[in-house]
Design goal:
It contains four helices and nine strands, in the order βββαβββββααβα. The protein has 126 residues and is of the alpha+beta class.
Length: 126
Amino acid sequence: MLEIPTALGYTKEHEWVDQIPSTSEVRIGITDFAQSALGDIVYVQLPKVGESVTSGLVCGEVESTKSVSEIYSPVTGVITAINLALTNNPELVNTDPYGKGWLAQISLSDEPKGLLSALEYGVITA
């Protein structure tokens, strides 16, 4: 059964958003559903620290043994950190998509809009 943590926000494109407590920053990644559909992740192209990203627009890509998929930013803001561990261990996206497999951290320049709850996202993936 797919994991869909209730504390996160989700997009229809299968990204997740986690608000970092007491900050205006979020951490993002791809969902368990997305990593499962992709198969074994072999490469992750992440945005650069300092780069501006816009909600709904491409900010990177994930390459698996099956295909290459674009990563869409679920929020608008500036990249403040990327998960450098994915450079040598892209499979972390498969083994821990909501933890060690996170992709980037973003300082919000606008309130996130249109994010789905875990229940709403679960309906999409069912």
